[in-house]
Amino acid sequence: MGVLNVTPDSFSDGSELSQSDSSAFAIDVPKALRRAEAMVAAGASIIDVGGESTRPGADAVSVDEELTRVIPVVEALRRNIDVCISVDTSTAQVMREAIAAGAELINDVRSLSCPEALQVVAESSAAVCLMHMQGQPRTMQKSFHYDDVVAEVYAFLDSRVERCIESGITRERLVVDPGFGFGKSVQHNFRLLRDLERFRELGLPVLAGLSRKSMIGAVTGRPVEARLAGSLGAAALALARGASVIRTHDVAATIDLIRVHCACWEA
Q1: Closest listed residue to residue 181, CA positions, set 96, 20, 44, 58
Q2: Is 222 noted as a catalytic residue in this protein?
Q3: Torsion of CA 231, 237, 239, 240, to 10 degrees
Q4: Which of 34, 93, 98, 157 is most buried (CB neighbours < 10 A)?
Q5: What is the pLDDT of residues 25-73, one digit of tens each?
Q6: Beta carbons of 239 and 205 less than 8 angstroms apart
Q7: Domain range 2-266, its CATH number among 3.30.200.20, 3.20.20.20, 3.30.70.360, 3.20.20.140
């Protein structure tokens, strides 16, 4: 899964897709399309489009602004590239319009807990990735607590999976994500990575979003733009522990890692 941030304030690279002749952030759709084409050429099978930054401390954006950023990009991807389109959003209206525009996967950091979100996905044919987050993006890294982070994240995802099934979303449409970096300490994140195989017990594909995150920076001392090697190390550990989807900013290098991993297990 290649990351396509269409925000001015994501923790990594979103601002690069702004129109160069605009003083305020305005998405440059051709730039976004070229980046997505490059990721697909490098081997990405999913492009994850996000119009609202969910980095620690991020402010919320209006629904209209999120739609303005996301929908033209989804439409351009659908017209030009044969790839699964994911939209990273928690907002029901954005989900609805994105699915209508061609999105096939909703990647929701709030696990369809916002008003009408569950209903919108249930009434569609789209898949959904359910992620664990303690708190909200603006404050999630300021206050959090777990007695047993693996057990508590597992229990949360298990409950959201059951809620989705009760609402008519079949298991074949579900993916789970333990939410690395979302209301968790560095130790919590590495405990989740170490025990990632536990989440396979849910019987669903597991997504690991580790690319360039602060947990990598914390142990390597590297700034965001220099975290490739650490991100690849984390991705390798995630694959070895059963992850089915790797969400990354660095598709070409990550695809090489995945190919080596698969060659080893297929030998």
Answers
A1: 58
A2: no
A3: 160
A4: 98
A5: 678 899 999 999 999 999 999 999 998 877 666 677 899 999 999 999 9
A6: no
A7: 3.20.20.20
Is position 213 annotated as part of the catalytic site? Answer: yes
CA-based nearest residue to 1, from 76, 105, 80: 105
Q: How far apart are CA 7 and CA 60, in angstroms?
A: 11
Task: Give every CB contact of residue 9 below 8 A, 6+ residues apart in sequence.
Answer: 15, 53, 55, 58, 59
- pLDDT tens-digit series, residues 234-256: 999 999 999 999 999 999 999 99
Supply the DSSP string of 48-59, one letter for each residue: EEESS--STTPP
- Write down the catalytic residue from 35, 173, 212, 247: 247
First-to-last C-alpha distance (Å) of the chain:
25
Domain range annotation of the chain: 2-266
